[in-house]
Write a structure and sequence with these properties.
heterotrimer, A mainly alpha (about 290), B mainly alpha (about 350), C alpha/beta (about 400), B: about 350 residues, 2 domains, about 0% strand, C: alpha/beta, Rossmann fold, 7-stranded mixed beta sheet, about 40% helix, globular, disordered N terminus
């Protein structure tokens, strides 16, 4: 029982990591109606920027904020410079660009910061107010931050004019433009915000798994899976999906199949979920019109 | 009169530099075949080896293109079929001592079945969801190949050595022989694909891609055709895997990471969707472009290994640049070029 | 001109009289240069090993600055293979057939080297000191052109197995290993050493994938098994995660950590020095960041080398000391070969190293090979981390592989 509790809580802690990245995935999906395969590497790169600032002696929160600002501008620039000119190219061409960006960010980080692991500080206190070996302070903090981000994103897309406009621009660019929304600006903004959410995720993930250029490789997979299982149109679903992936992976690894095929098992579950709920657990079913 | 035949391609009546289009195609084909046959005698063994690899990748890209380009289904999981084909051949050669040339077709058939079976559940998935499901397949593949209970067959983490055939033909060395072997298999597969996409099945595949609902109202069994396309696609990629195993003389789980799927995708997009010759362009791109990037970086940084990470920065930039210049792939570029240059007779 | 030709003939004739015929120098060897080929994972999942190739490159720079080897400068051509076996095959063929290197050296990885194992032996090109600890590189009768360097993984596994039998004969043992050839070889070594005791003592074994984000779940599972000895076969990233998690959940077994991760700066510092206290590891070369070697002349020389020739390199990374040591092994082979730089002779000398000392090996250790012994390094020493340094204990253990 103890093991079960520990594995579940641990799964939630790891799940928080997946959930934070899944949020970034949903963020960009809401903004551009696409998966961004380069999301993980962008987040990793942002985290390295923060790491560098801290290594130069900047206090944590200052580095945190500058990193977010940098990510926002960086995200917008990527949209403006790289994607705007090929806006009308087929979807697959966009995917190839995502692949190119993944390679570029990964290689560039390796070139600048090398491939040895780096410690990244946690912003949370060393000790929890209560005594527990079940969950550490950082894990606790990550769950909290993820939920806060979820709240902010929910409010943003639900209640702010900009958020609504962004969703409109992604879902139906032509109609959105007709009602006076600048689709271009919304796209740029969406990229910027997705990069910010990714950067926060990166800075929450790094203290746990250590910072290195390949840090996001595995996490991205689970983050995507979480987002898809939860439903790409639902930030709340993505977070639930992320937590679910974390717990599922741990429990399957412990009780069912052993760690050797844990990943495979988690993937089978994704496919199974998709078969029965093709729009994800919380996603909206899009009805196709002939 | 040919022009009144309703099945005739209207583009056939166009002229390119004063030559009729069917003739242009024939000339291109003949030149291509002549090059493919003579080139291996003019270059080094290493270059022949690289060309063989290009052909192998081209076959895999063709397999993917049948699925995505002609049928509109995404896949990031083709490294799994490639691996399945490669291991089928490796196990047959190593464990059962079957001659390599008897293993190619079985590898394809195994992958056809694998593809067909995977295609069944994939029916319910569209676009990104299918991409994720296939992505999952690709990621799980190396782990499955390493799984200790399969070790007896797969060799586990150690992989399997594959016997490389010596040339039975005097005048050809082993590299040249293998090149021609792959070339013949590739040519048969291209011919097969060409027939397929022009026949009933091909028209059904394309109809499903362009408008699935209309296709099904016209009485096309979309599920069956989608699954069969998955199977055929797996067949092609599996044969590529089988040939790849013989060319590399070795299979191991690390040879089949999901990046391989990504390369196939890149090759397909850069080459161009729904085009058979594009697969060869795609194969050329994925083999030579990393090498070109490496040369470019060593031009600037010499032999300094610290700069090696930049190879992939250069490659990424080349890739973005390529998409800019040819958003519809090289095949699209050629089509556009012909559309611009070709003239209607008398015009 | 004629005179010079005459003297060459005379020298050749003398050599003929003195011993076996002088074979022609290998391709890539001139009077001023020796071309050496290499592949390394500078990209991809194993790119953390890429620094080995970089430090070796810097090492050749430093040797060239000192005049090279017997008057010849080393030209080091190192290609990226991304740890993908088919790519290795292509790059190795490029090195040998297009760049015409004399031989290859320190090509990295087990699956990658496996892909070219037969090719190198068929081509009769020395495939020297491959950077992997698999046992298959030491088969001189079957593969006379391939030789390893580091103590093989199974040896380390055997040392751990032996340590458990000697000191904790009734222990409950938990194991975690990377799910690949490297991780599995250690376990094989342990099994061989412990015999049927292995199944009796080992209560739980877990694995992880290099792409796993964390191994927390595995550690929790192992802790829950009630094990009091923990054998940890992981790379620094996951070793550090394990140490941190163990401290967080209060699991304090006897912790045996493999040499790959036994690094103060790469593993213990990120994991917390206090958490790492008491870890027992095994190694064959000096961790340059260990205060133990602060005043050691070889370590100082290494630091000077890093400052001058590889300033971008991470001194915290032990692999850079590894690169320095293996590079000097290669240098010793070339020095021994003198001006007889045929592929046959280079291979012969690589298999004829008699107690050669190379810098950064632990005191008392030496490289030793013979035509029937293709395992250059077979000794290691155990050590225990005391919170600031690794204190070596016990003798040098040699595990001869048969």
């Amino acid at each position: 029982m103890d093991l079960f509790l520990q594995q579940t809580l641990d799964g939630l802690a790891t799940g928080a990591i997946y959930a934070s990245l899944a949020l970034a995935v949903v963020m960009i999906y809401q903004a551009i109606d696409h998966f961004n395969f380069a999301q993980g590497e962008m987040a990793m790169f942002s985290t390295f920027i923060a790491w560098q600032l801290i290594a130069w002696g900047m206090p944590y929160w200052a580095a945190f904020l500058i990193c977010l600002a940098f990510s926002f501008i960086g995200g917008m620039l990527i949209e403006r410079v790289i994607f705007a000119p090929i806006h009308d190219a087929p979807v697959l061409s966009h995917i190839v660009i995502f692949i190119a960006l993944t390679l570029i960010f990964n290689a560039l980080a390796g070139f600048v910061w090398d491939f040895t692991i780096k410690e990244f500080p946690s912003p949370f206190p060393d000790k929890l107010p209560f005594e527990s070996t079940l969950i550490g302070p950082h894990e606790f903090g990550v769950v909290g931050i993820t939920l806060v981000m979820l709240g902010l994103i929910y409010v943003f897309f639900r209640f702010t004019p900009v958020g609504l406009a962004m969703r409109a621009a992604a879902a139906n660019p032509v109609s959105a433009a007709l009602v006076g929304i600048s689709v271009k600006r919304m796209l740029g903004l969406g990229w910027g915000l997705a990069a910010v959410v990714g950067a926060v995720a990166g800075m929450m993930i790094a203290p746990k798994v250590y910072l290195e250029p390949n840090m996001m490789l595995g996490i991205l997979l689970y983050g995507f899976a979480g987002a898809v299982v939860g439903g790409l149109t639902s930030p709340g679903g993505a977070v639930v999906g992320g937590f679910l992936m974390g717990v599922l992976e741990n429990l399957a690894g412990t009780y069912i199949i052993g760690s050797e095929l844990k990943l495979t098992f988690a993937l089978v579950v994704i496919v199974a979920v998709l078969l029965f709920k093709p729009a994800g657990l919380f996603g909206r079913v899009v009805v196709m019109r002939v | 009169m040919a022009s009144h035949d309703p099945r005739a391609n209207p583009a056939d009546s166009y002229l390119l530099f004063g030559i009729a289009m069917p003739k242009v195609r024939m000339i291109t084909l003949v030149v291509g075949i002549a090059l493919a046959i003579t080139l291996p005698f003019m270059v080094s063994n290493f270059a022949v080896f690289q060309m063989t690899q290009v052909l192998v990748y081209a076959i895999a890209v063709l397999g993917l293109n049948l699925l995505t380009g002609y049928n509109g289904q995404f896949s990031l999981g083709h490294s799994a079929f490639y691996a399945l084909g490669a291991y089928t051949t490796a196990i047959m050669i190593d464990r059962y001592e079957i001659e390599y040339y008897w293993t190619i077709l079985p590898a394809g058939i195994v992958c056809f079945i694998g593809g067909f079976l995977f295609g069944l559940p994939a029916l319910r998935l569209e676009g990104l969801y299918l991409a994720l499901a296939t992505f999952a397949l690709a990621v799980a593949t190396p782990q499955l190949l390493r799984y200790e209970h399969f070790e007896e067959f797969t060799g586990g983490v150690q992989g399997i050595d594959v016997f490389k055939p010596d040339s039975p033909i005097s005048g050809l060395n082993a590299d040249q022989y293998l090149y021609f072997f792959v070339l013949v298999v590739g040519a048969l597969l291209i011919l097969g694909a060409w027939n397929l996409v022009r026949g009933r099945t091909g028209r059904a595949m394309i109809a499903i891609r362009d408008n699935p609902i209309a296709a099904s109202t016209m009485g096309i069994n979309t599920s069956l055709y989608k699954s069969i396309t998955f199977g055929v696609s797996g067949f092609y990629t599996g044969i590529a895997g089988a040939l790849g195993a013989i060319v590399a003389e070795f299979v191991a789980p690390d040879s089949f990471t999901f990046f391989l799927s990504v390369w196939f995708l890149v090759g397909m997009v850069v080459g161009g969707l729904a085009s058979i010759p594009a697969a060869i362009a795609g194969g050329i791109f994925i083999l030579y472009m990393p090498n070109v990037s490496e040369e470019v970086i060593s031009l600037f940084f010499g032999n300094d290994p610290s700069a090696k990470a930049l190879i992939w920065v250069a490659f990424g930039l080349f890739l973005i640049f390529t998409v800019y210049v040819v958003p519809n792939g090289l095949a699209g570029l050629i089509r556009q070029g012909i559309a611009k240059l070709a003239r209607r007779p008398g015009a | 001109m004629k005179l010079r030709l005459m003297s060459t003939v005379a020298v050749a004739a003398m050599a003929l009289g003195a011993g076996p015929a002088l074979a022609a120098n290998a391709p890539g060897v001139t009077d001023t240069e020796i071309k050496i080929g290499n592949t390394n994972p500078y990209s991809g999942p194993a790119s953390s090993y890429g620094t080995i190739g970089k430090s070796i490159s810097a090492c050749w720079d430093s040797i060239n600055a000192g005049g090279g080897v017997n008057g010849r400068k080393i030209k080091w051509i190192s290609y990226d293979d991304g740890y993908s076996p088919p790519k290795t095959k292509e790059q190795i063929r490029k090195l040998i057939e297009r760049d015409e290197v004399a031989f290859t050296f320190q090509t990295l990885g087990t699956p990658t080297n496996s892909a070219v194992h037969k090719y190198m032996n068929k081509k009769k090109v020395p495939h020297l000191f491959v950077a992997t600890g698999a046992t298959k590189w030491g088969q001189p009768s079957k593969f006379p052109w391939t030789i390893g360097w580091q103590p093989n993984y199974q040896t380390v596994g055997a040392i751990f197995g032996n340590y458990i039998l000697q000191n904790h004969p009734n222990a409950k043992v938990a194991i975690i290993n990377q799910n690949d050839d490297y991780g599995k070889d250690y376990v094989i070594g342990m099994k061989q050493e412990m015999g049927d005791k292995f199944d009796k003592l080992v209560v739980k074994q877990e694995t992880y994938e290099v792409t796993d984000p964390t191994i927390d779940s595995q550690i929790v599972g192992l802790a829950n098994s009630g094990a009091d000895v923990f054998v940890n076969i992981s790379i620094p990233k996951f070793a550090a995660q394990a140490i941190k998690k163990m401290a967080a959940i209060g699991w304090k077994p006897v912790h045996l950590l493999n040499d790959v991760a036994a690094s103060i700066k790469s593993t213990y510092t990120p994991a917390g020095l206090e958490n790492s206290k008491g870890i027992i590891s095994v190694d064959f070369y000096k961790d340059p960041n260990d205060p133990e070697w602060k005043d050691d002349a070889e370590t100082k020389a290494w630091h000077a080398f890093m400052d001058k020739y590889y300033p971008d390199g991470d001194k915290a990374n032990k692999f850079n000391a590894y690169g320095w040591a293996v590079c000097h092994t290669m240098k010793a082979v070339l020095e021994q070969a003198g001006d007889n730089l045929s592929r046959e002779n280079i291979m012969k000398e690589a298999a004829n190293l008699k107690q050669v000392h190379v810098p950064m090996l632990l005191p008392g250790m030496a490289v030793d090979t013979s035509p029937t012994d293709f395992y250059p390094l077979e000794q290691m020493q155990m050590m225990r981390f005391d919170g600031s340094r690794n204190v070596r204990f016990g003798p040098l253990i040699s595990a001869e592989t048969e």
